[in-house]
């Protein structure tokens, strides 16, 4: 890897500390959302509540997977093309598995 390529790669990486903070913030946000749904009284929108609950649980699983990738050294690398995921994407979606170009449609 050339020095210029290495420098560009490092600029697109984040620290483990930042990643852990982003993931923790996302995790806590989802837990608050889940608690709010579970505390609400059942009504005619039970199907909507069930869908929202499942969506939040899915995101919590994605966050757990991102934490494992962080621990194993694969965090921030696209699982499809193996290129670094841009920091801007990880700031918005810290549990992203893929870069924008490879994301599932």
Give a description of the structure.
- The chain is mainly α and 105 residues long.
- It has one domain: DksA, coiled-coil domain (Four Helix Bundle (Hemerythrin (Met), subunit A), Up-down Bundle), CATH 1.20.120.
- It is built from four helices and no strands.
- Helix 2 (16-39) runs antiparallel to helix 3.
- It is elongated.
- Mean pLDDT is 85; it is low at 1-11.
C-alpha end-to-end distance: 32 Å
In the CATH hierarchy, the architecture is: Up-down Bundle
Major beta sheet summary? none
Proportion of helical residues = 55-70%
Q: How many H/I helices?
A: 4
Q: Unreliable segments (pLDDT under 50, ≥5 consecutive)? A: 1-11
Radius of gyration: 17 Å
Q: Can you write the helix and strand succession as a string?
A: HHHH
Which homologous superfamily in CATH is the superfamily? DksA, coiled-coil domain
Determine the strand fraction and express it as a percent band.
Answer: under 5%
CATH topology: Four Helix Bundle (Hemerythrin (Met), subunit A)
Give the count of structural domains.
1
Give me the count of strands.
0
CATH class assignment: Mainly Alpha
Query: Any idea what the shape is?
Result: elongated
Mean pLDDT: 85
Q: Based on helices, strands and strand pairing, what is the structural class?
A: mainly alpha
Descriptive tags:
4 helices, Four Helix Bundle (Hemerythrin (Met), subunit A), 105 residues
Which helices and strands appear, and what pairs or packs with what?
Elements: H1 3-11, H2 16-39, H3 46-72, H4 87-92
Helix pairs in contact: 2-3
């Amino acid at each position: 890897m050339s020095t210029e390529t290495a420098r560009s790669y490092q600029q697109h990486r984040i620290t483990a500390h930042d990643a852990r903070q982003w993931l923790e913030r996302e995790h806590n946000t989802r837990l608050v959302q889940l608690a709010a749904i579970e505390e609400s009284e059942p009504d005619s929108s039970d199907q909507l509540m069930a869908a929202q609950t499942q969506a939040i649980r899915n995101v919590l699983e994605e966050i757990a997977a991102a934490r494992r990738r962080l621990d194993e050294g694969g965090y921030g690398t696209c699982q499809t093309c193996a290129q670094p995921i841009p920091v801007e994407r990880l700031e918005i979606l810290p549990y992203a598995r893929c870069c924008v170009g490879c994301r599932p449609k």
